[in-house]
Structure formats: C-alpha cells, structure tokens
Amino acid sequence: MKTMGISKFKSHALKILGQVAKTHEIIIITKRGKPLVQITPYRSNSDTDSKSGKLSDALVFEKDILSPLGEEMWDACK
C-alpha cells in the first residue's frame, strides 16, 4: 500500500487514478500525516466467481469429505 499527501493527489489526480486502475494498487491519501481516504481499484461483479459469495476467500472447499475418516467410519455413524 502506498501513501500520498493530499496536495500531491490534488495536483496529479487523473494520473494517479489511471495508475490505480492499471496496477490495481491501493493508495492511502493523507492530510497532515493522518490517513484520510483509501483509493481502491473498481471490481465489477463479473470479475468475481459467480458461484462464490462474499466469504469465498475465507472458506476452504474439500473435494472428498469421506476419505479423511474412511467409508467404514461413515457407515458406523448411520
């Protein structure tokens, strides 16, 4: 993450916004050394996987849930 003073951002706003769109880098704009605004690149809904929801990055999907215990353990639980 990159930080930048508000005066520099004001003088080069279009160039900086173009850079954010191109590199997908997040920029924090500061005022007197304190964070004021965070600029993030736009992501449309088509950029994300249609099957995944908001928590898709937090979940782990296992391909086979029977193998860790073995089929005989699953049969015993019936």
Short précis:
With 78 residues, the chain is α+β, with helices and mostly antiparallel strands. It contains three helices and three strands, in the order βααββα.
Q: What is the β-strand count?
A: 3
| Order of neighbouring strands in the sheet with most strands | 1-2-3
Task: Look at the structure and give the CATH class of the domain at 1-42.
Answer: Alpha Beta
Beta-strand fraction estimate: 15-25%
User: What name goes with the CATH superfamily of the domain at 1-42?
Assistant: YefM-like domain
Overview of the molecule:
It contains three helices and three strands, in the order βααββα. The chain is of the alpha+beta class and 78 residues long. It has a domain at 1-42: YefM-like domain (YefM-like fold, 3-Layer(aba) Sandwich), CATH 3.40.1620.10. A three-stranded mixed β-sheet has the order 1-2-3. Strand 2 and strand 3 (34-39) form a beta hairpin. It is rod-shaped and about 70 Å long. The mean pLDDT is 81.
